Amino acid sequence: MLYPKEDKENQILLYTCCNCNYQQEADNSCIYVNKITHKADELTQIIADVSQDPMLPRTEDHLWTFFTYLKPDAMRLYYVCTAPYCGHRWTE
Fold it and tell me: Hey, which CATH number is domain 1-37, 3.30.530.20, 3.40.50.2000, 3.30.420.40, 2.20.25.10?
């Protein structure tokens, strides 16, 4: 089995056998690719500073604001706490 090894003098990637010291130059310098896919939750997409938006409706009795998000099939209300250092988000 060949293991990746760096030739620091020539700055190339080699594949080397640990038993017999056989070496061959790698065709590609990439030895590993880590593809990460992330699907964002609806609530994580809400920007934390949205509570400071003066255009969003507010109530005098509660420390929260709300806004709507229209999808082709439904409308949803999102609430954000406007208390300093809170930023809690929830939906119905």
Answer: 2.20.25.10
CA angle 16, 19, 23 (to 5 degrees): 25
pTM of the model: 0.40
Query: Is the Cβ–Cβ distance between 78 and 69 less than 8 Å?
Result: yes
Nearest partner of 26 among 45, 12, 42, judged by Cα: 12
How far apart are alpha carbons 77 and 68 in whole angstroms? 5
What distance in Å separates the CA atoms of residue 45 and residue 78, rounded to the nearest whole number? 11
Phi/psi at 88 (5° precision): -60, 140
More confidently predicted of 17 and 51: 17
Task: Please provide the average confidence, as pLDDT, over all residues in the chain.
Answer: 76
